[in-house]
Specification:
Elements lengths: L6 H11 L4 H9 L9 H10 L5 H12 L5 H10 L4 H13 L1 H12 L7 H13 L4 H14 L2
Length: about 150
């Protein structure tokens, strides 16, 4: 005998695993929504009012989880894909940009550990760091620093 899980129970199950943005949760619940269920928007509004659903917390959690591996541009793009408001993205960006150089150095160190020996390797390292969402200025600076330190 299978018991049907309510939309509210599904929402709590998703939120128990990690923070979700409103748009993310709406997309996940929409797959299970049926005419007999309460309206999806009303459920999301109720969860927001009660403090269970928060775009601010979802954005903060995502930034904290990704900032050691990705640059501000990549993190901002992922937040946009999760439906986070541009104002919230803009609010989290200054802290990321302040630490961008240190994060890029750490990512470079974990991945490469050695200065590029030729232009092909330099281009490969640049593409990697740019793909991770670091700004071109930061990438050039990191590679210039490691090239200056190389014997």
């Amino acid at each position: 005998m299978s018991r049907e899980i309510s939309l509210r129970q599904r929402a709590f199950a998703f939120l128990a695993r990690r923070e979700h943005s409103r748009a993310e949760l709406q997309a996940k619940l929409a797959r299970h929504w049926q005419e007999s269920d309460e309206p999806l928007e009303a459920l999301l509004d109720d969860l927001t009012e009660r403090g269970y659903l928060s775009d601010e917390r979802a954005a903060a959690q995502w930034v904290a989880a990704k900032q050691a591996r990705y640059g501000p541009r990549r993190i901002a793009q992922e937040l946009r894909q999760k439906g986070i408001d541009e104002a919230l993205i803009a609010a989290s960006t200054p802290a990321l940009q302040a630490n961008e150089l240190e994060a890029a150095r750490a990512v470079w160190q974990r991945k490469f550990r050695a200065a590029p020996q030729d232009d092909k390797e330099r281009a490969r390292q640049m593409r990697f760091l740019l793909g991770r969402g670091f700004s071109p200025d930061t990438v050039f600076r990191v590679l210039r620093e490691v090239s200056d330190l190389a014997p």
